[in-house]
Amino acid sequence: MARARGGAHLPLIIVAAVALALILIGKAQSSLFDRARAHVMDWMEPALQASRVPVDSATRWVGSIGEIFAVYHENLRLKEENARLRQWHNTAIVLDDRVKRYQLLLHAVPDPALTSVVARVIGRASHPFLQTMILDAGKAGGVKPGQAVVDARGMIGRIFLTGERTSWVILLTDLNSRIPVTIAPENAQAIMAGDNSPTPAIETLSQGRQLKPGDQVVSSGDGDILPAGLPIGTIVAVGGGYRVALYADQSTTQDVQILDFKQPPETPPKPSPNDLPVTAAGLPPAAPPPAPTVNAPAQSVAPLLKPVVKPVSSPKLPATNPAPTDSGTNGDVPEDNNQ
Amino acid sequence: MDRMGNIMGGRLLASIIPVMFGIVGAFVDNVPISIMGPWIPSPLFSLMPLYYWCLVRPDLMTPAWAFLIGATEDILSGGPPGVWAASFVATYAIIDRQRDAFAGLSGLGAMLGFATAALVACGTAYIIMLIHQWSLLPLTPVLGTFAMTVLFYALAAIVLGAVHHRLVGPMRSDF
Prior knowledge:
A: alpha+beta; six-stranded antiparallel beta sheet; 6 helices; B: Arp2/3 complex 21 kDa subunit ARPC3
């Protein structure tokens, strides 16, 4: 027995060292493992789709057992809530219309248009250190990591890994989730952090801000990762602190939207000489510099003066005033390649 | 000659059944479908074959297999790589050192023995994650996983025992 143990100890040490090395490699190169996960999940997708139907039915059946006894009270509560929500719905329509008119009057920049992909939840997982949801849309559907996932009620999480036909969502309740949020009505900026409990915590609240139960939490849009104004939840007091009761119910939601917020960066057109501040102000543009008298410095400055010299060739731009020869100033003027 | 071939094939099959159960356990554990709701964590099914065969037939459950099962768990769970691999190897080391004490347990004692192993696995994973994340993590999800794992072991032990006595044992026997 002792010999057998001694024989097993040597590989045990080696295997333990390999395991530690794996942790370090995983920390440095997590993309290798992410690709493996994405491939495995793509491979398992048909099985998940097939197994989803009976499991969902079983889940609903199990979940409804406890609800049978509270159906009457639940019905009354829902009727009352429905009546209240209808009032809010009418108010929201009126306010939305008013906001649009104000925006029109003020020539406000409209909100960026969001494109979205509708996906179905094909799996949910709850592990000690990870809470995920798996969707049946992946790279083939234009899904990319970082995109926000919402259902009809509010935000659920963000895409963190995409396969060809599947994608993984890191839920707002997950340990690794950190979302910049705005808390209305005071517009306090904060970070909402998940900790694997049903109600994420509020961290890093801006100074001097006091939270109240019932305050609304929406995404702030800071960092251009998520669109601003996505409804997330309301503030609730839990054990002396404040947490966020999420609108979305990640345990029951079946269909979600994946929002593509990242707009392609707009390339502004190159400015023409008429776009120069001087010309735009109706003043005559700067004249070309006088012909250099000393050869050596002129050769070195000439390339820098090129952008200013070119507009002079235009018939609209008379050359009257001498141009400054400061290379720093002229260097800031972009060259017009169209001429 | 045929008999020798059958014996060798049977031996090979018997030697991979324990690790196959561990890997299947990792798959079952990580199938992202939960009928218990999102707030009740999945049990560590992959730990159960590891513990069982590490006690009963340590020659069929080597440290390398423990590492492989843990690595499978890591890949499928979506968490940081190496966490479960290292914690399973640590658990294997504890079981290996205390095999005589664990093997002598039966009934409720056997459950307590497995609970100790599960505690080592969950505790090691928690500590590694603590260092990995460099922040204090909530204990509740790990304790939930630990409790569910111990709870499900009562059923799993019956299945593993049946597999061992009907498949692995006869295949490893030369007669």
